Amino acid sequence: MALARETKVAIDAVLAASRLCQSVFKALVSTETVIKKDKSPVTVADYGAQAIVNALLNRHFPNDPIVGEEDSKDLHADESLRNRVLNLVNGVHDQPMTAEEMTKFIDLGSFAGGPMGRFWTLDPIDGTKGFLRGEQFAVCLSLVVNGKVELGVMGCPNLPIDLTKPEGERGSLFFATRGGGAFQRSFTSEVLTKIKTADVKNTSETIFCESVEAGHSSQSEAAQVAHRLGITRPSIRMDSQCKYGIVSRGDAGIYLRIPVSETYEEKIWDHAGGMLIVEEAGGAITDVDGKPLDFSVGRTLKNNKGIVAASSPKIHAEVLDAVRIVLGKSQL
Ligand SMILES: Nc1ncnc2c1ncn2[C@@H]1O[C@H](COP(=O)(O)O)[C@@H](O)[C@H]1OP(=O)(O)O
Ligand SMILES: [Mg+2]
Ligand SMILES: [Mg+2]
Ligand SMILES: [Mg+2]
């Protein structure tokens, strides 16, 4: 299998970081008010997860640069926060590290990205708002080679293995390599299930998913798109790249992210893994202008606006037409 060693290391790193996030949340479950008043639990978990993943990547692939969301700037000024993160990291990592080593690992994520060579991209917690609510979040790690995503791994600790059984086992891990297909496994078993997108014949029979946050994606325009497509069922609103996971395994047929702000640039770590997993499961994805997502231009997707992902190229074309009409980008 292509990228076999990279895939194994990335899965181990994502699982370790996911467990760290879960332990932070569990420690706070009994003090829910602390979570609501104080955003620091998510901060601690963000830094801790980035330290763990970067330490493992650095051990196995010391020459690979990393584009990570977080940096250690705020930790230098706050000794108590730094010590909380360090305790957490040393609680799950096999080799104890010093505070200085930990901040160095976090700052390995400062690479600028670009078109040449290979680099990793990491979102230590994607969907921080979902994490704080005890709902969906994801740890997302991808490998980009010469501007193309070649491997994507996504750990979704709170996502049921089977969405129709919300009380059943939780913790879904997705991964894909380019040309190698997309797979799901649980957090506890290494048994792999090949996944594919839903077989949607007509857009009206499917369900779409979108962000919980109205500030991240226009829910009113998404509702107009759904109406044009004859979709009557309400959307699944879910935080984080877990949305890519549920499209990939067929729980939803469409994922829309319609820009709210003219100036916001989507980050590469928010889409790299999810995009490859959707494509390898049979889906298609572009931005709202129909352009492929361009991971070769730095830390953001500055050449793209919004996201349209669908279960197949045919459904994608229909959804894109509807999006463009709603956004006034094409004639009726
Ligand atoms: N203004 C914004 N527009 C779009 N996405 C945003 C914005 N601000 C933050 N995000 C990012 O959107 C993603 C959450 O996606 P969703 O809205 O689909 O749950 C996260 O990566 C979040 O960052 P973060 O990783 O810090 O949580
Ligand atoms: Mg994110
Ligand atoms: Mg994040
Ligand atoms: Mg963030």
Overview of this protein structure:
- With about 325 residues, the protein is of the alpha+beta class.
- Helix content is about 40%, strand content about 20%.
- It folds into 2 domains: about 5-195, Fructose-1,6-Bisphosphatase, subunit A, domain 1 (Fructose-1,6-Bisphosphatase, Chain A, domain 1, 2-Layer Sandwich), CATH 3.30.540; about 205-325, D-Maltodextrin-Binding Protein, domain 2 (3-Layer(aba) Sandwich), CATH 3.40.190.80.
- The chain has helices at about 5-30, 30-35, 40-60, 75, 80-90, 100-105, 130-135, 220-230, 240-250, 270-280, 315-325; strands at about 65-70, 120-125, 140-145, 150-160, 170-175, 180-185, 195, 210, 235, 255, 285, 305-310.
- A 7-stranded mixed sheet has the order 1-2-3-4-5-6-7, with helices on both faces. Strands 9-8-10-12-11 form a 5-stranded mixed sheet, sandwiched between helices.
- Strand 6 and strand 7 form a beta hairpin.
- Helix 1 runs antiparallel to helix 3 and helix 3 packs across helix 6 (about 100-105).
- The radius of gyration is 19 Å and the shape is globular.
- It starts with a helix and ends in a 6-residue tail after the last helix.
- About 50% of the residues are buried.
- It binds adenosine-2'-5'-diphosphate and magnesium ion (3 copies).
- One of its GO terms (molecular function) is metal ion binding.
- It is an enzyme of class 3 (hydrolase).
